[in-house]
# Entry
Amino acid sequence: MRRSFKFLLRPTSKQATALTQCLEDHRQLYNAALEHRRTAYRKAGVTIRYADQSAELKHIRADDPGGQGRWSFSSQQATLRRLDKAFTAFFTRIRSGRAAGFPRFKGRGWFDTVQWPKDGDGCRWNSQPEHPSATFMRLQGIGHVRVHQHRPVRGRIKTISIKREGSRWYVVLSCQDVAAEPLAASGAVAGIDLGIASLVTTSDGGQVANPRHLAAIADRLAAAQHDLARKKRGSKRRRKAVVRVAALHAKVRRQRLDGAHKAALALVRAYDVIVHEDLRIVNMTRSASGTIDAPGRNVAAKAGLNRSILDAGWGVFLQILSHKAESAGRELIAVNPANTSRTCAQCGHCAKENRLTQAEFRCMACGHVAHADVNAAINILRAGLALRQAAEAA
# Structure
């Protein structure tokens, strides 16, 4: 398996300045390469590719030894590949008839990651093994940076990335050949229904609370954003206000990830087979505002629902659950979510009138009463087991 390990960096003030300059130089390289492609095609009809720009890189480094020349050649090649992937995706969208989305120039604050394609080429993980109580990594042009390594790294390190999130710096190790850690069989199966009142409801009646992290700091975030709106663009105070808003969002993201990891781990430990709905969250959270000619209805209510769904973090949770299930040797099954909340788990009668409220289910045919999310989770489990049986029969 391939897994990523993310650790907090503890750079000195001088190293933090060098890391910031490293990002800035790679951003300028990305923008210059993008302008090169645009100008060549617009003025001469020539298509510039990655190989052409990579061959010119050594001349750029020779002309600017104190700037571009001090960083790793491999990391700069990775930045050029990043641009090449953006163009590949652009042409793929054109061929498929989707909105094109031409690659954009990266402004300040929109380029926060630099990658090294190989451990030992411009970077070195655990560069000072003689320090048993601390972990360091060496980066060309920056030096040995201390790492807060809170768990062991498994597998073979494939790529190393440095990422800036607000005022914090992280290292992300992408590792191959990570061995699975299968858990002992529990003999239990479950269907799970994702919701807003409860993040997860299982078919046997268990529930995981939805902490609503964004709603918890909504007042502080609104005040910080209001303060930001009053600042003059380009001023030092505005930059500080931007940092405060970003820090609040980063805290919510970390809390949401932590909660998703804990909830997914509990499910993986408890059940051998987990069935969930194959949700299209992007479609579910699409705006209802409509257009000027055809305005939408209940726009404010739909916006509030979208905000609650995104705050719950269903997509993040399902992604983490998938990774943990694979590592633990558990089976994860996705089923069509259509009518799972309207169908009676007792008799199979399907009608929207069965769902009296968000939490109450009462079948209009047989009178079966249950918690609406538990009823839906039972239907999800049955659909998943039916799919599993059909696949085994085939």
